[in-house]
Amino acid sequence: MGILDGYTVLDCSIAMAGPFAAQRLGDLGADVIKVEPVAGEWQRHAPAGGITGNKINVSFLSLNRNKRSLAVDLKSPGGQEIIRRLVAKADVFIQNYRAGVAGRLGVDYDTLSAINPRLVYVSMSGYGEDGPHAQRPGQDLLLQAMSGAMMSTGRKGEPPQAAGQYLVDAVTAYTAFEGALAALLHRERSGEGQKVEVNMLDAITTLQMQELSVFTVGHKPQERSAEPHAHVYIRAPYGTFATRDGYIALAMPQFPGLARALEAPALAGLDETTAGWDDRDATFAAVREAIARFSTAECLTRLEAEGIWAGPVYTYADLVADPQIAHNGTFLEYDHPTEGRVKTPGFPIRFSRSPSELRRGAPLTGEHTDDILRAAGFSEDEIAGFDGAGAIGRGAA
Fold first, then answer.
1. Parallel/antiparallel/unpaired status of strands 92-95 and 67-72
2. How much helix, strand and coil, in percent to the nearest 5, is found in the chain?
3. Distance CA 214, CA 221 (A)
4. Cβ contacts of residue 136 below 8 Å, gap of 6+?
5. Fewest CB within a 10 Å sphere: which of 102, 187, 239, 397?
6. Which terms in the Gene Ontology molecular function aspect does this entry carry (predicted)?
7. Catalytic site positions
8. In terms of DSSP bridges, do strands 120-125 and 331-336 run parallel, antiparallel, or are they unpaired?
9. Residues with Cβ < 8 Å from 206, sequence gap 6 or more?
10. Helix crossing, 380-388 with 77-87: angle to 10°?
């Protein structure tokens, strides 16, 4: 039995953060009903990397497994009636509309909690539901920039660098997932539902717990180096270095061991404070020149012999083929009825008694509309009426 077997989640979210959070609840056994427009959720039509798939693009496929699709027009009276009936028996409701939209659609917390006081209502936003930035677009790159994190990457005098993944979206998804689970635990103890507010700005800010505390408590500013040092608050050498045939990552070695490993005696006498902090650029450059004389394999062997923390710089192809990834079962594979064989990252937490489970791949738009409505008590005549009025979609691509 999955941890969340018997729980129903109404996922009214779009794009990445909300659907990712809802997918995690589905991975733990919840019945996640993806409530999307009759034409399909926006992410169905915005494929990452231009990979459109057969009927479902990879972006949507990756964020919507273990869900059933209910295609409904929330702007129509019929669509709003359907949601009210579903909310009465739901456990979790997730939305990430812009401020004010949930109210206009009649799916705000006050309205839905009046129908079901035990409802855990997860509201996700870019900057918060109110305040001076509430109406700004909550997009990953914009939040990375605003969070201060980008000013810690890249070279001094060059444009700050963004992360190589949708970092803010992913962190916000996990924050919402954590918040939903905590609110469900509270409900099990008290019987009370509640509203859970998560915003992208707070999620990415609090992720930088250590770095921001160095600034707010230690009052040390961000000072980027001319060399591509990997972190403004870690001593040199720390970062990525080119070998004769590739790259390695090097993390905070002691200078005597580094000197022996790289046959660079000049490194042995460096002072950790002076060279590591005050002369970071010169130290980085010296190590870079020493490492460039060796192949990746030789360099890693030498560094490992000295107990120095170093590792290869992988491509995605390298990562997917890594034996530890295979041992961990990090990826899951399944056959999808329209997309064929799918290989995608799975659920990263292992439970000894209640493991996560893949029950279904990403659905077609409205694939489960009829089943969901029948289970909610709607008659065949009512379903046909909703269909005729354009309030629902039924199994389109």
1. unpaired
2. 40, 15, 45
3. 8
4. 126, 127, 142
5. 397
6. CoA-transferase activity
7. 169
8. unpaired
9. none
10. 140
Distances (CA, A) of 26 to 33, 53, 121, 195, 358: 9, 23, 16, 20, 9
Compute the distance between CA of residue 61 and CA of residue 363 in angstroms, rounded to an integer: 8
Q: How far apart are CA 158 and CA 179, in angstroms?
A: 38
Contact between 310 and 251 (Cβ < 8 Å): yes
pLDDT tens for the chain, residues 1 to 397: 899 999 999 999 999 999 999 999 999 999 999 999 999 999 998 888 999 999 999 999 999 999 999 999 999 999 999 999 999 999 999 999 999 999 999 999 999 999 999 999 999 999 999 999 999 999 999 999 999 999 998 999 999 999 999 999 999 999 999 999 999 999 999 999 999 999 999 999 999 999 999 999 999 999 999 999 999 999 999 999 999 999 999 998 999 999 999 999 999 999 989 999 999 999 999 999 999 999 999 999 999 999 999 999 999 999 999 999 999 999 999 999 999 999 999 999 999 999 999 999 999 999 999 999 999 999 999 999 999 999 999 876 5
Please give the domain boundaries of the chain with CATH numbers for all domains: 8-207+361-393 (3.40.50.10540)
Cβ(224)–Cβ(156) below 8 Å: yes
Give the separation between CA 149 and CA 168, rounded to whole angstroms.
11
Residue ranges in 28-130 assigned as alpha helix (H): 58-63, 77-87, 101-105, 109-115
Looking up tokens 């009636």 gives 81
Q: What is the CA radius of gyration of the chain?
A: 25
What H or E segment, with its residue span, contains residue 28? none
pTM over 0.90: yes
- Amino acid at site 254: Q
Q: Which of 335, 227, 240 is nearest to 275 (CA)?
A: 227
Rounded distance, CA 151 to CA 133, Å? 21
